[in-house]
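Explain this one:

_____
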Amino acid sequence: MEKNGNNHKLRVCVATCNRADYSKLAPIMFGIKAEPQFFELDVVVLGSHLIDDYGNTYRMIEQDDFDIHTRLHTIVRGEDEAAMVESVGLALVKLPDVLNRLKPDIMIVHGDRFDALALATSAALMNIRILHIEGGEVSGTIDDSIRHAITKLAHYHVCCTRSAEQHLIAMCEDHDRILLAGCPSYDKLLSAKNKDYMSIISTWLGEDVKTRDYIVALQHPVTTDIKHSIKMFELTLDALISFNKRTLVLFPNVDAGSKEMVRVMRKKGIEHHPNFRAVKHVPFDQFIQLVAHAGCMIGNSSCGVREVGAFGTPVINLGTRQTGRETGENVLHVRDADTQDKILHALQLQFGKQYPCSKIYGDGNAVPRILKFLKSIDLKEPLQKKFCFPPVKDNISQDIDHILETQSALAVDLGGTNLRVAIVSMKGEIVKKYTQLNPKTYEDRLALILKMCVEAASEAVNVNCRILGVGISTGGRVNPREGIVLHSTKLIQEWSSVDLRTPISDALHLPVWVDNDGNCAALAERKFGHGKGIENFVTLITGTGIGGGIVHQHELIHGSSFCAAELGHIVVSLDGPECLCGSQGCIEAYASGIALQREAKKLHDDDLLLVEGMSMKEEEIVSAAHLIQAAKLGNTKAESILRTAGTALGLGVVNILHTVNPSLVILSGVLANHYVNAVKDVINRQALASVKTVDVVVSNLADPALLGAASLVLDYTTRRIY
């Protein structure tokens, strides 16, 4: 310290306002206390720490063996906007006397709470240096404005992520006074190895509760839209009651609207419900173990999107309070949680999963960096802070369009004839495509997939594309969770009970997703086509076979045995032609390319196919295209076959409309244009009046199979917005 001109110990004042900021400040306080030769520590406690309704959490500071120099009662009760303003005013009245007595060299302030704004304002006006923890981050509500206001008052900054560091630089802060340290709480999180976590779970949730079989709920009011946040909390509790799992509910913070949220809890009987445990406070060490072993965490606390990622616990982030936060893949965002069903569906999607652990916010070494940074502060430097203009250095900024264009996926399409691999950009552009004949045996096919993927991945570097993963579209029944083809179509031989994910992921060191080609077509429409932004729609592929995918409430439906959306095998006639599946009268037996080819051959064998204007070479194979050409040239028998095929497809669509009630039907594949009018006519004649207004459109995507395989990757790796 002497090399920086400091001849005495650095007197550090740490002010903590609530249970949340103490979890971040405590590791720093322990570090300061452990080096008395360099630092003197004064602890000031204010805010909700001192309120009984919020757990009297100042006691945990005493339990950690810290001497509290001053307790300031600064909260004006009322839990509304006016009370928040009055609380800031009360703190501003009381703090000057405390700071005059303590005369700290530096004050450490955390985060974005209104109490912290009062602390920073007081210190700045009294010429006390301020170290701000967790500046530069982005979230929702008034917290953003408060956080950035404290940044402008602070002299030194400790941030948690590279993005936060860049935001601070862009806000004209001096780069030399910014430390990228990581989140201090991660120092404790990543070293937490409490083997007796079962006793903690039993204490808070009951002795009959198992790991991964309970929920932690923590939801706060959104001060910029209190009415909506109360409604969302009510829907959340309804969904949790319906979900019927043991749930630990923590009381909300002291922000405006918290009183109404507590009323909602009591109105629904949460404190006396057998499935719920409602508590005001859980010690941080125990809270760590509870979220680490939970089946899910739900709410809008920053803890969910920050700390919980260290354990890979599934999180459902509700509403806008954390909008803009960097998150790991364990977080599912439900931005507009406007129905109980939507929240319930999110619980069904997330509960019990285990995600990779995330270290976005820290590596466990924040405190040593912060202590070193404190020691480097030269108290002889001018107190007046300087702002740096221009705000961002040239080598700091990145063009977001460039990033989006270069993020890409390897898409694989396993067809009955060809095997195709493509590099597909975030915008749906096929940058490069490779095509080979699909081998007949499993070994040759897998070897060719690997060879083509390796070649494409190498080429991606040359075309400035960063491959995020591999998506595979294949015929047959697929278990997308495990990446296994369960049963294939007859067009792809030796392709049942095949694990595609493991060998390809091992060879390329990339994540791999696999799904049925019909589902992939629906995903392609959802991301790049007519289905973009549509909540409920159905895609029908009309090609060699008939397939499709169903998107309901923005989610693809797979079914209990991954057999949903086998739309080609909807039976429209009990005594119709035989289908490849072994049944009779399926849509595919009437309207697929194979079915039309079969009928074309019958006409050709009877010399009834060719009409004036048509010719065929002797060795040419009769196909569905010849039947369509004959119908266009006036062949009445060909016209009749196509009319029957269109009617069969239309009846199948009517059945779909009556079953899942989509708002849009998308016809995809080479035969879509030939069937669209026939399908609309059948709907007009046969459908119930309530579904006749459904839109039926032809896909405008050139290659839905490859685009759908790519979307498996791009939708997942670039984070999900539900």
Summary: Residues 391-398 have pLDDT under 50 and may be disordered. The two ends are 51 Å apart (CA to CA).
